[in-house]
Amino acid sequence: MTNPLHWWDSLGRPLARLPRWAAAAALAVLAALMVWSALAAAPDQQAQPAQVEAKADPADGDLALYARISQRVAAGEPYHAVAMEEQRAADYPTRPFVTVRLPTLAWLHAAIGVGGVRMLCAALLLACLFGLHQRIPHGLAPAERVGAIVMLALGGAAVAAPLSGLVHEVLAGLLLTLAFVFYTPSRWWPSLLAAALAIAVREIAVVFVLLWLAFAIVARRWGEVTALLGLLLVFAGGMALHYHFVEMRRMLGDPASQGWDGMAGLSLPLVALSRLSALLILPAALAVPLAILPLLGWLGLGGRMGLFAALWFAGFFTGMALFARPENFYWAQLTLPAYIAGMAFVPRAIIELIQISFGQSARQP
């Protein structure tokens, strides 16, 4: 039986293999999506910046809550007792149990401080830049290679925020990017370690591990499959313990979450990406449509790296569109800085589509 991933690799740059009608359709869909996103994001952009600023306000909101919890944990109090007390006091939900964050980041704050976590995030970003430099396919033009590294750095702009050390998704996103750029078939254990740390910080990062598991099964890489299943088993055990410690402190009348059925649409992740990366410096009408393009770049890159990235990002953003509420915009940080690096591969992808649409043969590297 042919390995589907080997077949995909054999295509080289997949967009260059499209028939003429498909390339023209892809360009039309891309243009329509960019126009739609510029129009659809306008009302969201009026409402969401206020929510973003409220959540980032050091005197109130999520970050203030995390800071208070971490300060008390650093003083020696038990995490789950403190988290439940602080969330009740601020009228934050504690039901279901996943509304209480995993204790990993608070414990890390107790060990090295919020500033130390911010420095750790900066070090991880540098490691991601090095890893991407090593992993980018050698057939790419020098401009694309340099551009990918620059775009990755811009995608990690959140690290520069003074309170970035309090944001679970910033640290988890950097760890997932590290797992992504350091993966090689012959040396995958560093990626496994980085992914394990990511889900220990933010549990929804597990979708990355599940996608990796699917790739390992398709490729019949049974050593990876075993290791990933082991990681998922440990993760399930950790979540069970977290559930136990939250539920043992449950009180009658604890507030419950509104649920995760926001059906906010694709404008939510696009607006979030435009606010959480260096796209923030651009006008919303330009930044939000541009946030679509890295997905095309990663798909056009081809190979396992491009396919994994395209499926990871497309799947995650679809999940946000279906389940996230507007105030969950920060989930998009889990795809950064890796997602923005795909912007470097966009020019070649568009050129290939245009060439094919006009009956020309797209050049393979």
Write the layout of secondary structure elements.
Layout: H1 4-10, H2 20-56, H3 61-74, H4 79-89, H5 104-135, H6 142-155, H7 168-182, H8 189-201, H9 206-218, H10 222-247, H11 267-276, H12 284-290, H13 293-301, H14 303-323, H15 338-341, H16 346-357
Helix pairs in contact: 2-11, 2-12, 2-16, 3-4, 3-5, 5-6, 5-7, 7-8, 8-10, 9-10, 9-14, 11-12, 11-14, 13-14, 13-16
**Secondary-structure element sequence?**
HHHHHHHHHHHHHHHH
Structural class: mainly alpha
Shape: globular
For the terminal residues, how far apart are their CA atoms?
A: 28 Å
| Low-confidence blocks of residues | 46-59
Oligomeric state, counting identical vs distinct chains: single chain
Helical proportion, percent range: 55-70%
Question: Counting H and I runs of at least 4 residues, what is the number of helices?
Answer: 16
How many whole angstroms does the radius of gyration measure?
21 Å
User: Mean pLDDT, rounded to whole units?
Assistant: 92
Number of domains: 1
**Biggest pleated sheet:** none
Fraction of residues in β-strands: under 5%
Q: How many E-type strands? A: 0
Summary keywords:
single chain; mainly alpha; 67% helix; transmembrane
Question: Overview of this structure, please?
Answer:
This protein is mainly alpha-helical and 365 residues long. About 4% of the residues have low confidence. The protein has one domain. It is globular and about 70 Å long. The protein has 16 helices and no strands. The two termini are 28 Å apart.
